[in-house]
Write a structure and sequence with these properties.
The chain is an alpha+beta fold. Helices cover 28% and strands 35% of the residues. It folds into two domains: 77 residues, 2-Layer Sandwich (Alpha-Beta Plaits), CATH 3.30.70; 119 residues, Beta Barrel (Lipocalin). The radius of gyration is 21 Å and the shape is globular. The relative contact order is 0.14.
Length: 239
Amino acid sequence: MKIKILFLSVLLASSNLFGAYEVKIAKYKNHTFLMLEVAKIKAPEYRKNIVIQKKGKSYYVTSAVYESRGEAQKALHAYKKVFKDAFMQKGIKSQVPREVSENTVITELKKPQTEKHCNAEELLENKTVYLCYENGSTSSQKRIIQMGFEGEYMEYLPLKSTYKPLKIPYSFKGDSVVLQMSGIEFVYQIYKQEEKFLVVKSFTNGKESSHTLRYYFDKEDALEFLKAIKTRHLDQSQS
């Protein structure tokens, strides 16, 4: 009897989802620009309820699931103010029971051993650092991102951009900075401390990124690193 009841409950949950709606919002390859666009969504109830999934090298953005067409249309109207190509879709298949929140994150974090224990709070609290990519795409290695750890929110702003700073709640945990945004957990672990910068590994929902980052304490040092990267790319293209 218990097995029959459980099966019926799951079946009913699935049936409800087939009649539900969601908004397909956007697809981005650049996570930084995606987060800056998300910050433009004015209504907090829609900004907080988006779902971001990484598939391969792209980030797919959808809304929460809505049971009525009217609710989904209101969400679509809010998202299209920022994401012009957003559209509504009916008949969503899901293997997740209704009791589980769309924003639930199960994290299995496997971090490399640091060469020397670094206290993220001591190193970053009330400071501004300049993020550079040691590796990754050519476009990402051309960017410097200013990150300010003052007060309740971390301010995230690519230099030479027309965007307003993106404010993200954060916390320090041992050697890491933890950000929570749209149901996704971003962990930035300080792997090693050098004289002018910190070597940082990043994790998204427990999965380690292939990118290695540098947090420079001085903007001029970050600019010098960018020049060195450009010179290296130029030498490689000519060889």
